[in-house]
Structure formats: C-alpha cells, structure tokens
C-alpha cells in the first residue's frame, strides 16, 4: 500500500518520500486513516515501528487543514506531544520539522526539554506555537513562567506512555491533562500496557481506534535475541572479545549498563584496549551528549556505553547490535533497550549477559515479555560461579521451617542483581 492511498496531502506524501519512507510501516498504514478522521487512537507499538511518522503526518495535516480554527492570542498551543526524555523530544521535534517542510503553510514547531536554559525556549514560544513537543517537567515549568497556555490544545499525543510512568512522570502528566480542554483528539502510544497505563488509556480515550502491531508476523522489527552466560567479573573481557571478533560485521554497538559509574569504567577499559568507546549518561552535559550521538551516527565512535535514562528513545538508523552488559531493571526496559536495534524493518541483534546471580531476574524478564531465550556460552568464558544462597528478603530473619516462596526467591535474585549492578565496571 503506497503512502498516497492513506488520505494524506501530496505535500506530506512528498515529505515522507524525501525522508526515505517509500512504503508505510504497518502502524502507519493502520493509524494514519483513523487519525485523519479525527478519532482517538490507542497504539501499541515499540520504537522502531515508525510510530513517530504515524502520528506526525496526520497531525500535521489536521492542523494545516484547520487553519481557520487557529486560536487567536499569544502563547496558545494547538497540538502537544509529550515524550519521556530529552533525546526523544529532540528526535520527534526533528522528524516533525522535516515532514512539515513541503507544506505551504508551515506550522510552528517548538521543542522543549529540561537540562538546558529555559530562556531560549520561552523566546521561541512567543506568539504561541502550533505544535509543542515536550518533556513533562519542563512543560510545566514553562506554564508556570506563563510562557504558554494549554487551553487551546486540540490534539494530544502521549508517546511512550509506559516510559513516562517508569520515569515517575505520572503526577506531572495528571497536572498537564488538567490544563487541557476536555474536547480534544488523543493519540496514545505505548510499547507495553501494564495496569496503570491501561487505566490511563481508558480514562483518556473515547472510542479509540486500536492499533496493535506487536507480535504480528513480519511487522515487529526483526531482532535476534541471544543470552550469554558469563561470570559477572569477566563481562568486560567477554565484551572486548566479542567486539574484536565481530569488528568488521557489527559496526556500531550500543552497550547498556546499570550505573553512570559502570558506563564510565567500561567505556574507559574498552578505550584503553583500542576500541573507540564512549560513555553516555545523565551526568554528561546535554551539549556533549548531542555531540556523542551525532558522532556515533557518523561512526566516529564504535561503541557507546549507556545507562537506561540516557539512551531511551535514541534513534540511530541501522544500529545493528545492542548488548545488555547489565540486565535492565524492568521487563519494559528490556523491550525498550532491544528496540534500539532492528528499527523499521532492519534486522538487529540483542545480546544479554547473564550470571548466576542475575539468572532469576532474566527469567522474570522473559516471563513478563512472553519470551523463552536459550542460554549460550562462549569458549574461554564459561561461568564458574553458582547462584548465591537465597537471602531472606523479608528482613525478619526468616521463619524457621518456612521455605522461601517463588516470589521470595525472585525478590532475592533481583536484590542480588541490583547489588551486582552496583559493582559492575569494577572488573
Ligand atoms: P520510530 O518508531 O518512529 O522511532 O521510527 C523508527 C525509524 O524508522 C526512524 O529511523 C524512521 O526514520 C524510520 N521510518 C519511519 N517510517 C518509515 C517508513 N515508512 N519506511 C522506512 N523507514 C521508516
């Protein structure tokens, strides 16, 4: 199905082609016609599915076609896109800007996020904006500074709603929704729908079109998931070994670790061994982070060693390999991490290291995500450690004669995994 059969204006079809989108991805084919009709939408899709263009193209079209209804008055915003991280804000704002380039009436798009000075963002918002792409905290700061008003928002997009919750934005989100007019079109995207997200979607959406592209054969990005068993203390050596072994084949590799300290130490160790690796985490200045990302895209770095917070929402086309040096804390994070590879139909590889201490945690991740991954070993790196004894997770000293439940064991394993993560990078 070509783009021009979805009901999009020629200028938007042309922009999609200019961005290299020749055929709509499944979520685009399913979502665009419904959004153009003005319906609410509940989209269950991972990053990499093409969801940014799936909401951006029809949103741009609706805004442009509704020019006469353009609210008068300064500081008004017509469409609001809420995203969990700065990187995703910059990425979504950039995609929208590109897609709007061929429109005769180009909408004003302003991207705002924390961690940088608020003043230029306030200046940009003078005279209002058609579209604001924002992280929740900074958006509320701007509302408090009277830099924008949300009472004329006709379209709201929640992108990566599950991540917004995971990052603790539930309260901010509630406050923002209170400031919006009741009548509006809502587009709700999430990779996963745990109960809190399900409840929010139910509250927000009215008779939504439901688009679920996960799990349909051939539509999910093609990601090979592998698990390698290794002792925690030998992970850096194994990482080096794999990077060297696949030097010509892998190109750029994104390595996930649990802490900023681990990001620093693992990247430094690789760098000292002749691998172009750089750390990437929330403590690195925003400007430097943007530089690292663009240099990574240009292949000036071969390996980025990142924490979850910093790496969320990053879109690096043709990122072939993601390695979980430390396992992610939550099953949702696992999906988001591996979603960094195999984007929009490209194939990708996700490797997770697992040790005796983190095995139970990985099993929980697999269970929650409906996965069953086989365990591999690499010659010369076979694990020697066994699982630590299950500690009493209740802190009561344990009840004599009462065997730990399955839940107790998992809790203890998660605690052991967190402790192992704390010390990661020390090897
Ligand atoms: P997203 O899921 O929105 O983060 O998009 C993931 C990647 O897919 C981005 O690099 C987009 O540029 C790319 N993309 C989006 N739509 C298409 C399409 N129809 N054809 C090819 N690539 C696409």
What is this structure's SSE topology?
Elements: H1 10-18, H2 26-36, E1 41-44, H3 51-65, E2 77-82, H4 86-100, E3 109-112, H5 119-124, E4 129-134, H6 136-144, E5 155-158, H7 161-166, H8 170-179, E6 185-190, H9 195-204, E7 209-212, E8 222-229, H10 235-245, H11 247-250, E9 253-256, H12 260-272, E10 277-280, H13 286-297, E11 303-306, H14 308-311, E12 321-324, H15 331-338, E13 347-354, H16 359-368, E14 375-376, H17 406-422
Parallel strand pairs: 1-6, 1-7, 2-4, 2-5, 3-4, 5-6, 8-13, 8-14, 9-11, 9-12, 10-11, 12-13
Helix pairs in contact: 2-3, 3-4, 6-8, 16-17
Bound molecules: adenosine monophosphate (AMP).
Q: What is the strand content? A: 15-25%
Report the C-alpha radius of gyration, rounded.
23 Å
Summarize model confidence as the mean pLDDT. 85
The N- and C-terminal alpha carbons lie at a distance of 52 Å
Strand order of the largest sheet: 3-4-2-5-6-1-7
- Count of alpha and pi helical runs: 17
**What small molecules does this complex bind?**
adenosine monophosphate
CATH class value of the largest domain: Alpha Beta
Main sheet record: 7 strands, parallel
**Helix fraction bin:** 25-40%
Instruction: Return the CATH architecture of the largest domain.
Output: 3-Layer(aba) Sandwich
> Can you tell me the residue ranges where pLDDT is under 50 for at least 5 consecutive residues?
215-220, 392-402, 422-427
CATH topology of the largest domain: Rossmann fold
Shape: globular
State the oligomer: single chain
From the helix content, strand content and strand pairing, which structural class follows? alpha/beta
| Name of the CATH superfamily of the largest domain | P-loop containing nucleotide triphosphate hydrolases
The total tally of domains equals 2
Per DSSP E runs of 2 or more residues, the count of β-strands stands at: 14
């Amino acid at each position: 199905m070509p783009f021009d059969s979805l009901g999009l204006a020629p200028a938007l079809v042309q922009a999609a082609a200019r961005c290299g989108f020749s055929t709509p991805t499944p979520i685009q084919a399913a979502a665009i016609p419904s959004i153009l009709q003005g319906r609410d939408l509940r989209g269950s899709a991972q990053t990499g599915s093409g969801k940014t263009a799936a909401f951006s193209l029809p949103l741009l079209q609706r805004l442009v076609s509704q020019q006469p209804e353009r609210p008068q008055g300064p500081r008004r915003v017509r469409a609001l896109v809420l995203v969990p991280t700065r990187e995703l804000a910059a990425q979504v704002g950039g995609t929208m800007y590109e897609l709007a380039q061929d429109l005769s009436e180009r909408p004003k798009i302003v991207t705002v996020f924390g961690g940088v000075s608020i003043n230029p963002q306030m200046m940009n918002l003078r005279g209002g904006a058609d579209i604001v792409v924002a992280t929740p905290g900074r958006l509320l700061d701007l509302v408090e500074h009277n830099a924008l008003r949300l009472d004329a928002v006709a379209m709201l997009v929640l992108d990566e709603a599950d991540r917004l919750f995971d990052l603790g934005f539930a309260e901010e989100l509630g406050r923002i929704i209170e400031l919006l007019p009741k009548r509006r079109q809502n587009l709700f995207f999430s990779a996963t729908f745990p109960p809190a997200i399900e409840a929010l979607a139910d509250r927000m959406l009215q008779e939504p079109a439901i688009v679920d592209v996960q799990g349909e054969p051939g539509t999910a990005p093609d990601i090979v998931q592998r698990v390698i068993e290794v002792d925690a203390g030998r992970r850096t050596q194994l990482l080096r070994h794999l990077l060297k072994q696949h030097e010509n084949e892998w190109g750029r590799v994104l390595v996930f670790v649990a802490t900023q300290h681990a990001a620093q130490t693992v990247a430094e160790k690789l760098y000292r061994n002749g691998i172009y690796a750089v750390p990437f985490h929330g403590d690195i200045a925003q400007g430097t982070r943007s530089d690292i990302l663009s240099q990574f895209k240009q292949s000036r770095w071969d390996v980025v060693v990142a924490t979850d917070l910093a790496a969320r929402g990053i879109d690096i086309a043709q990122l072939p390999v993601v390695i979980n040096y430390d396992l992610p804390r939550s099953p949702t994070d696992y999906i988001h991490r591996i979603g960094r590879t195999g984007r929009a139909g490209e194939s990708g590889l996700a490797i997770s290291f697992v040790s005796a201490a983190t095995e139970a945690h990985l099993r929980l991740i697999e269970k929650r995500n409906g996965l069953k991954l086989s365990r591999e070993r690499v010659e010369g790196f076979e694990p020697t450690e066994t699982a630590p004894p299950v500690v009493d997770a209740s802190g009561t000293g344990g009840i004599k004669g009462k065997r730990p439940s399955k839940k107790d064991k998992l809790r203890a394993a998660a605690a052991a995994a967190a402790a192992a993560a704390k010390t990661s990078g020390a090897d």
